[in-house]
């Protein structure tokens, strides 16, 4: 009845190109990659993907900017987030920074301290006409 696109980004799609920052591990510095990265530990720096997926799990922490086509957050991020495609915020996500997204899903319980900025390709936001004619 309802046709929804059920194809969500998944780490398994990037088999052989997946990196893991494990629980208890800390990465200091920027990480540039193609593929996927899962953050279960701590990243102090920016995560920059030209293609792929960034997943911050429930125990994960990123202090820096995240840029990727697909981003899934269920942990904590302190910095701006740029998801050119799909951004998913889980119920345990905590974000302190601005969110720039093409499409966004947000579960009840997610917390954001920042602005939501929808990315549109060449479109202008909906505006009211200069004069409104009201029919009675």
How would you describe this structure in keywords?
136 residues, globular, 0% helix, 13 strands, mainly beta
Helix percent band: under 10%
CA(first)-CA(last) distance: 38 Å
Describe the biggest sheet? Answer: 7 strands, parallel
Mean pLDDT across all amino acids: 85
Order of helices and strands: EEEEEEEEEEEEE
Number of strands: 13
Number of domains: 1
Question: How many helical elements?
Answer: 0
Strand content: over 45%
Described by the principal axes of the CA atoms, the overall outline is: globular
Rg, alpha carbons = 17 Å
Strand arrangement across the biggest beta sheet: 1-3-5-7-9-11-13
Backbone structural class: mainly beta
- Low-pLDDT residue intervals, each spanning 5 or more residues: 122-128
Describe this protein's structure.
This protein has 136 residues and is an all-beta fold. The chain has one domain (15-116). The protein is built from no helices and 13 strands. It has strands at 18-21, 26-28, 31-39, 42-44, 47-56, 61-63, 66-73, 76-78, 81-89, 94-96, 99-106, 111-113, 116-118. A seven-stranded parallel sheet has the order 1-3-5-7-9-11-13, with no helix packed on it. A six-stranded parallel sheet has the order 2-4-6-8-10-12, with no helix packed on it. It is globular, with a radius of gyration of 17 Å.
